[in-house]
Write a sequence for this structure.
């Protein structure tokens, strides 16, 4: 703790390094321009003196905490850890740190509000959580930009970054119809999530264009356990689906397990399966899951750029960024006679768009 | 942004809520005692006035940021997202927030040092990263407690929380020998990680006690791709192992994929597989992976308690907490004739300990 010793100041560091005080300040300001040699001198002097640049004191001057809060509720689904990792690296490259806000399980309303206010984050990214109108309003009043990631909301004017939820659902309908399937099932995520709603709407509209009725439907709530129960429900029906689209890969893996190990079904001969996200486990050969991709790095890059823009220019209009994905075909669906192409070791469905 | 309007102060909130200013302060101090009714009044008044309690200003008074930095390098391995989620919730219950520090890929030395110093974290938890002696020394000088999670180090006196790495490796040797296996393989994690080293030492010592030589060995570096290559290496040998222990579940799944889909091997008939951690994918029936457990919640509880203790009492001696695990048997290993018991839907190996 260096008790009794006066803490080193930036003046001490500047004197020892033989540079100006402003150089010391720049050396510790993320993203500031400084010659590599000067930075090295400052860092050496700071280390020798035990100097701690004080981001907190600085934040009182600049009124910026340089902390972005990010809420994510489902780290079980491999999509979100990958997002978190890329987001943390992306924000860091812009001089921000990521404060992880995990909503409490089952807590009723706006569990994040206190934290967001108390820690004075410069911005808030909500991934896999819904934005209440109360939280949106509080953030607006406090001047804290909010970005929805992999979600949209109709209750407030909020910027968002999503994949192609609606088109993805449509393309999946096109592929399954082209593969000769006739009885369709859908496993929904959390019912009020825009993501699940849009994927379902795209899927049912796509099926309708090919002359098919609404698919059989069960709710998996984005959880492995609920999706397993949804699979039992769908697969026990007299008119058992021969193709199921699950609103994400995580649920599709649960459905694959139930289909194989409880119903003795072969995939794709007895049951075709499609997920959404194209996460790492979709590529594991035991599942070889056909999935509509949400390209992680472009989505994260868009989110980082957008949140930084909102911080720098609070008057900027809200924006809804949609990052295009592709339907990556693997062994969990039958191969149609045509309509696909092989590229970079992946097979992409490019059949005629129904929409 | 409330331009032109004076920001509300805690005095304004106290007046409107009809409570004392100290009640307002308590309402926004994590962990402080306050009647539910008072808290409700304060929160209502704060909302109405757009009041933002200022954790940053408070941290200058208390010299506490109430932020804990946590570094985690491998979010691909499902163990770490689960840790992150539980750690964030556990710290929050103690009034701390978790700042996620992702080391940059391939950056040479102490990528975290700047962040730790600049953000004045109250404590630092290093999960799945090694602690350089430079970082350890800097943190010691700055009075920032450091806790290693799922790692230990011999280069500094640092507190740590780990599972039973050495005993786990031994128990796995006992189980595989009891199952009648005779040719053993080991897939190591990152070579200089204490966790991989201790698991390997336990395994080889356990095998030696039963009269077996060192296992065939390949390095998987905790990555899916490197573990797949390690599997190809081990399985192509003339004296192909009939049982492989992988230093974590994530690598064991990669080995299972290669064994089945590239070598046409049946698990466990041709090859037994054991992992470590007992993560969610180990339970997926396509893998049904036998694994030595690292009980997540007890490990996180121990880490949260330890880091809080270190913050409150900087003079406390360092401690190495070891959280006991169990060898959970599933279908990826042959069932020995005896030595196991069924409990809570799980089969636990309890055969005579070799150690």
């Amino acid at each position: 703790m260096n008790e009794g010793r006066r803490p080193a100041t930036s003046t001490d560091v500047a004197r020892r390094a033989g540079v100006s005080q402003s150089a010391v300040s720049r050396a510790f300001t993320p993203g500031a321009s400084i010659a590599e040699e000067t930075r090295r001198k400052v860092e050496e002097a700071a280390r020798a003196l035990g100097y701690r640049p004080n981001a907190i004191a600085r934040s009182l001057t600049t009124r910026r905490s340089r902390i972005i809060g990010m809420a994510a509720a489902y780290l079980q689904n491999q999509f979100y850890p990958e997002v978190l990792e890329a987001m943390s690296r992306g924000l860091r490259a812009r001089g921000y740190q990521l404060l992880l806000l995990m909503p409490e399980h089952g807590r009723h309303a706006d569990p994040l509000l206190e934290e967001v206010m108390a820690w004075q984050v410069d911005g808030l990214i909500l991934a896999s959580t819904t934005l209440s109108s109360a939280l949106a309003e509080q953030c607006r009043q406090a001047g804290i930009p909010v970005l929805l990631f992999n979600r949209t909301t109709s209750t407030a004017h909020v910027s968002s970054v999503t994949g192609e939820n609606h088109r993805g659902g449509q393309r999946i309908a096109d592929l399954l119809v082209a593969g000769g399937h006739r009885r369709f099932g859908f496993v929904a995520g959390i019912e009020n999530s825009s993501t699940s709603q849009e994927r379902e709407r795209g899927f049912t509209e796509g099926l309708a264009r090919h002359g098919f009725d609404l698919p059989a439907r069960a709710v998996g709530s984005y959880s492995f356990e609920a999706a397993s129960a949804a699979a039992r429900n769908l697969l026990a029906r007299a008119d058992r689906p021969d193709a199921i689209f699950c609103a994400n890969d995580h649920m599709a893996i649960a459905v694959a397990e139930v289909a194989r190990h409880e119903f003795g079904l072969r995939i794709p001969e007895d049951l075709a399966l499609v997920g959404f996200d194209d996460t790492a486990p979709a590529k594991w050969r035991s599942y070889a899951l056909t999935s509509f991709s949400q390209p992680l790095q472009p989505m994260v890059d868009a989110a980082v750029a957008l949140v930084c823009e909102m911080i720098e220019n609070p008057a900027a209009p809200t924006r809804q960024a949609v990052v295009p994905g592709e339907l990556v075909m693997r062994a969990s669906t039958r191969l149609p006679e045509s309509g696909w192409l092989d590229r970079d070791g992946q097979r992409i469905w490019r059949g005629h768009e129904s929409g």
Q: What stands out?
A: Chain B has three domains: 10-53, 63-163+296-323, 165-293+326-349. Residues 1-5 of chain B have pLDDT under 50 and may be disordered. Chain B has 13 helices and 14 strands. The two ends of chain B are 66 Å apart (CA to CA).
